[in-house]
Structure formats: structure tokens, C-alpha cells
Design goal:
Pathway: Glycolipid biosynthesis; lipid IV(A) biosynthesis; lipid IV(A) from (3R)-3-hydroxytetradecanoyl-[acyl-carrier-protein] and UDP-N-acetyl-alpha-D-glucosamine: step 6/6. The protein has 400 residues and is of the alpha/beta class. The chain has helices at residues 2-13, 22-50, 76-89, 105-113, 127-138, 158-161, 229-242, 287-295, 315-332, 342-347, 377-390; strands spanning 63-68, 93-98, 120-123, 147-148, 151-152, 166-172, 184-190, 218-222, 248-260, 263-268, 277-282, 301-306, 337-341, 360-370. Helices cover 35% and strands 22% of the residues. A hairpin with a 2-residue loop joins strand 9 and strand 10 (263-268).
Length: 400
């Protein structure tokens, strides 16, 4: 199954089918048929929501959705963390709603990073039900109730907003979660592979047709530091053909330190990899960005083993990793280091200990907004605040 997923991803990322292997090309007609069926289901679902056959739940606080149009690697979860941390520091307690896909590795990472802040995390496929349970437990308060002349009051009422009560919901991977109404739609785009072959699932990486760009209030091009100026201009032009007035921001993942698997409290400096041999092992949506970041750390040699997004390592995978490590050790005459992402660590930290005596380290990074023509960190936060303030203030909820 892992091999099949890899083949499907290679087809989805391909720009020229003639360069694919015979096996890859033999799967294209099957995937094309499945993609057509998926498109029909999408159209029917959209029709049912548009004409009210399916209801949308309105939560009693503002909802900020962070989503994407393609599968994995778009920086959704780091952006959710960035927004939630900013809200908490601003005196508003956010509730993160996440589906908890594939064992909840992202939810565990968020909980660790946001520990000590007034942030709640709800995990469950039915986000409305999950939210209702947490509203009942913690209460809620709409920060728009404290607007003074169109702005959040900074002094007298701030302590009332800064409470244990939920003030804003941040919806992780929310763009296709149509059953929940949102006030702000943030679309994350992987700058390295924005649309793949432009086909919808499973022939391509698109979860919706590109015209869905029109639903976005803000677009963020992630991994922009790894993309050429020419390609960034092309991505921007393509998006503004769909929606001219779309605000566009750029982000990157900024590495901070490593920690050793088995001792999460260690803070190992990035320069430890200088002139070293590294094996990058990952099961994430954008392995290329991860590997490119490691190569920039002055390593002697970087090899890689990529698994499909959210893949849980098995004993057979550990053996494959060991074989690769032995090859590298024989080639360079020194023990290589395994480097993984935090997401891979949180998926299953125990199985990685089976690689002893080889050292395994997790790379810690944080999302940063890249200043570009007036669109920087402060500009993003200001725009987000204005979008929340100007959103409709209808607190009527549908029955759950």
C-alpha cells in the first residue's frame, strides 16, 4: 500500500506523463476515472450545501479556517500554531479544532508547542460537536462584543476577553469542512509544488478545482524562501486570475534547534550537522522542503528516505532505514545521523529508539512570515484582526 501511495503521488506531481514509467502510465486511466467520479461527488455535495439540503453550523464565536486545495505539505498546522499563539498573547483564548488524522500527530505537536498558553485543542471528525463540548466545559465569549469604535478595547475590557472562555475558533484543515461556517478563510499553498498536474484526486493533488481559490480571504505561499522569484510571480498571477483582490503573504519554516529522540528536553544547536553525514527520514507532505533545509546546514552529505504523509513506521521500515545507515557508514567511514521532523516524532516516538546505536534527532522549526512589499508579520496580524472584526456577527446556531 505504501508503494502504491508513492506511485500515485509521483503521477500527481508529474508535469509530463511521457517521462513516467510503464507502471505509472498504466494506472492513469484508472485514476482518471476515479478522479471524474470524485468530481461528480464534489459537485453534488456543493449543490446540496448551496441550496440548503445540508445545513451549516454557525458557532457563537468567530471562526478562522486554515486550509488548502491540495494534499499535505502546505504549512496548515504551523499556521494554526502561529495564529493561536498570537491570539493567546493578545488576550483572546482560541480553540483549535482538528480532525486528528492518522493518530493525531499534529494535535500532539500543537499541544506541546502551545503548553502554558490559554489555548484549547479539540480533536474529532465532527468539529461542531467537538466545539459544543468544549464550549460547555469552558464557556465562550465573542471578542466582537468588546469592540469600541470598531476596535478591540485594549484596557478596561481586556481582562474580560483574556479568560478561560473560548474567544475564537481556529479550524485546522478547514477549507473542505463545509458543514461549519467560518468568518475568515486562509488558504495555504505549497510554493514548491502548488498544484501538481492540476488534476483533482486521485489523479492529481487537488481536493477541489482551482476555482475554489475564490473562497479565500487570504492566501499564504509556504516555503517561499525555497522558490524562485519567477515561480512566485507565476503562482501569484495564476491566483489573481481567479480573484484579483486576493491578499498574498509568504512564509518559511525557520529551524531553531534539534532534540534527541529519547530526551525531548535537549536543545541541540543546528551547527552540530556541519560536515556530518545525515539521513533524512520523513513521512510528511513536503519532504523536499525538509531535505533542502538540512542541506543548507553545512552537511557533508545528505541522503533521504521518504514515506507517504502520515505513514506510521513499521518494523520493516526500521530495517530499511538500518540498511541505508549501514551503507552510508561503510561509504564515509563514520556513523551517520538520522534527522526527522517533529511531526514524525509525535506520530510514534518509541519505534525510532530501535535505531540505536545510531543517533536520531528531531528538527524543531517555527513558521515565519517573510516581509515582502509591505506584507510582513504585523501586516498579516492587522489584516486578520480586521477580517474578524468586520465579519458578520450572527450568533444563531443550528442544532447539533
Amino acid at each position: 500500500m505504501e508503494k502504491l501511495r508513492r506511485v500515485v503521488k509521483e503521477i500527481a506531481d508529474a508535469q509530463d506523463y511521457t517521462k513516467l514509467s510503464a507502471l505509472h502510465r498504466s494506472l492513469i486511466p484508472i485514476l482518471s476515472l476515479a478522479s471524474s467520479l470524485y468530481g461528480v461527488v464534489l459537485s453534488i455535495r456543493h449543490y446540496l450545501y448551496h441550496f440548503g439540503f445540508f445545513s451549516k453550523h454557525r458557532l457563537p464565536v468567530p471562526v478562522i479556517s486554515v486550509g488548502n486545495l491540495t494534499w499535505g505539505g502546505n504549512g496548515k498546522t504551523p499556521m494554526v500554531e502561529f495564529i493561536s499563539s498570537w491570539l493567546a498573547d493578545s488576550g483572546i483564548s482560541p480553540l483549535i479544532l482538528t480532525r486528528g488524522y492518522a493518530g493525531g500527530d499534529e494535535a500532539r505537536m500543537l499541544a506541546r508547542h502551545l503548553r502554558g498558553k490559554a489555548v484549547k485543542i479539540g480533536v474529532g471528525a465532527n468539529r461542531a460537536v467537538t466545539a459544543a463540548c468544549l464550549f460547555k466545559r469552558h464557556g465562550y465569549v465573542d471578542p466582537r462584543d468588546y469592540l469600541v469604535e470598531g476596535k478591540w478595547h485594549e484596557q478596561k475590557e481586556r481582562s474580560r476577553i483574556n479568560s478561560r472562555k473560548v474567544g475564537v475558533v481556529v479550524l485546522d484543515d478547514g477549507m473542505q469542512h463545509w458543514s461549519l461556517q467560518r468568518d475568515v478563510e486562509i488558504l495555504m499553498v505549497n510554493g514548491l509544488t502548488p498544484w501538481g498536474n492540476h488534476q483533482i484526486l486521485p489523479l492529481g493533488p487537488l481536493r477541489e478545482p482551482l476555482k475554489a481559490l475564490g473562497k479565500a480571504d487570504v492566501v499564504v505561499i509556504h516555503h517561499a524562501n525555497l522558490v524562485s522569484e519567477h515561480n512566485l510571480r507565476y503562482i501569484k498571477l495564476m491566483m489573481r486570475e481567479v480573484k484579483k483582490s486576493l491578499p498574498i503573504f509568504f512564509t518559511r519554516m525557520s529551524p531553531s534547534h534539534f532534540f534527541e529522540v529519547g530526551n525531548i528536553n535537549t536543545r541541540i544547536p543546528l551547527d552540530i550537522l556541519c560536515n556530518g553525514v545525515v539521513l533524512c527520514v520523513s513521512a510528511i507532505g513536503s519532504a523536499n522542503a525538509f531535505v533542502q533545509g538540512i542541506k543548507k546546514m553545512g552537511t557533508l552529505y545528505v541522503d533521504r528516505l521518504d514515506f507517504s504523509d502520515h505513514h506510521s513506521l513499521q518494523d520493516t521500515d526500521i530495517e530499511i532505514i538500518r540498511m541505508k545507515l549501514k551503507e552510508l557508514e561503510d561509504k564515509f567511514g563514520s556513523m551517520p545521523v538520522v534527522v526527522i521532523t517533529e511531526k514524525d516524532y509525535d506520530r510514534d516516538p518509541e519505534i525510532l529508539r530501535h535505531l540505536s546505536p545510531y543517533k536520531v534527532m528531531a528538527l524543531c522549526s517555527e513558521l515565519q512570515i517573510i516581509p515582502c512589499r509591505g506584507n510582513g508579520d504585523d501586516d498579516f496580524k492587522k489584516l486578520l484582526k480586521e477580517l474578524v472584526e468586520n465579519a458578520g456577527h450572527d450568533t444563531t446556531t443550528h442544532a447539533i
